[in-house]
Write a structure and sequence with these properties.
This protein has twelve helices and no strands. The N and C termini lie far apart (69 Å). Helix 9 (115-132) packs across helix 10 (142-153). It is an all-alpha fold. It has helices at 2-14, 17-26, 32-35, 40-50, 57-73, 86-96, 98-101, 103-113, 115-132, 142-153, 155-158, 163-172. The protein folds into two domains: 2-113, no CATH class; 117-172, no CATH class.
Length: 180
């Protein structure tokens, strides 16, 4: 029992209530078990609460209408029977052309699918900031910090740039005093 409490406490520290609610709402789009988790009200709440900049009020009402049609069409369609992930659902909607019929649902699914990417990018940036902005460099200005973080995060791009190329570029800039 103590182990379960410790794990629950760790999960609560890692994921706040808003993130947990978002993840739970996202499960209502899951196609597993013939769309058994599907719930129109939850999907509409997901769109209005977490994506208000992406859906206007009128679009939320249109989304509700699309979801009613979707609920009768997609779970019974043989092409959607064996899907197990939201990603597969999105791909199948595109492959069958149903993404045009259910364009608002498709938009919401694509927004949900970008969640892990945007979260990982943000976490990576904060981890990098902890490494770049040390106690010795804590007075770093925002512009310089941003430049250092870009170089640190985008290592793949910067690998191809030699130190000599940087020196040459720096040397070519007009200066009051010669760099040599």
């Amino acid at each position: 029992m103590v182990v379960v409490d410790q794990q629950l406490q760790e999960l609560n520290c890692r994921f706040n209530k808003q993130v947990t609610e978002l993840l739970i709402m996202c499960t209502s789009l899951d196609p597993k078990n013939s769309f058994s988790s599907f719930d129109i009200d939850i999907v509409c709440s997901l769109a209005s609460k977490f994506y208000p900049a992406d859906f206007e009020e009128q679009e939320i009402e249109n989304l509700r209408c699309q979801l009613r049609h979707y609920a009768h069409d997609i779970p019974t369609n043989p092409k959607f029977q064996n899907l197990t992930t939201v990603s597969e659902l999105c791909q199948q909607l595109a492959a069958t052309g149903k993404n045009d019929d259910y364009h608002l649902i498709d938009r919401l699914i694509r927004l949900v699918l970008t969640l892990p990417v945007s979260t990982a990018t943000t976490e990576r940036a904060f981890s990098a900031m902890e490494l770049v902005k040390t106690r010795l460099q804590n007075r770093m200005e925002d512009g310089f910090l941003r430049d250092c973080l870009v170089i640190y995060i985008e290592k793949e791009i910067t690998i191809g740039i030699s130190t000599d190329a940087i020196i040459d570029e720096f040397d070519e800039a007009p200066r009051r005093v010669d760099f040599n």
